[in-house]
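Discrete fold record:
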Amino acid sequence: MDPAAIITVEDYERPRTLDQFSAWWISTYGLFGATRAGVLYVREGKGLSKKFHDEAHPMLAFMRHYYSGSDVVCKLSAGTGKADAQLLDTSGAVIRNFQIATAVDGYTEAMRRKQLTRVGHVDALAKPDKDGVIPEELLMHNHHSLIREMAGHIAKAVEKKSAKGYDKDFALIVGFGDGIFDAEDLPAFKALVGHLNHSFAELYIVGIHGRIALP
């Protein structure tokens, strides 16, 4: 299957309940991962695959955490409008407009993707050297340093979005990879990112693996 045909604009923007959203995301993720062409398409951020991972995935994590069992509907946007997503009630009225950001070190992630394509494996936590190369040997990582680093990426994402001056009724969702987090990390993490200054009506910091969500 042509990877570019896996997600159409119409499909991406179809309003969905949480159960429908979850089923669609899982199915689409599987289609991209079923062929090497699909994997490379996503890795290179082509078409709607970037929005699928950077916006749809955090939005799904948000709904799973805050709207489990609810009959609200999510409508994603594939376009360039101000809202990356909207929540709608059963009558179709907008409950909230959302901007969505993903907290990552863009350069490091780009170097990891290049190495993954080149050699087939990469340390998901390692940093590139001065030449942009990720060490291929297994490295030891300081757990608390990684959490502080992630908090820094989140703060930068909030600052960048706030500087764009979205309407006051917008909420911001910042998705991040919380795969390394344990329950006991929450107090320290909350101290780092629980009181960030921002220009949005609401701020939600949501781990895409479902381990951590603030507030």
Summary: The mean pLDDT is 88.
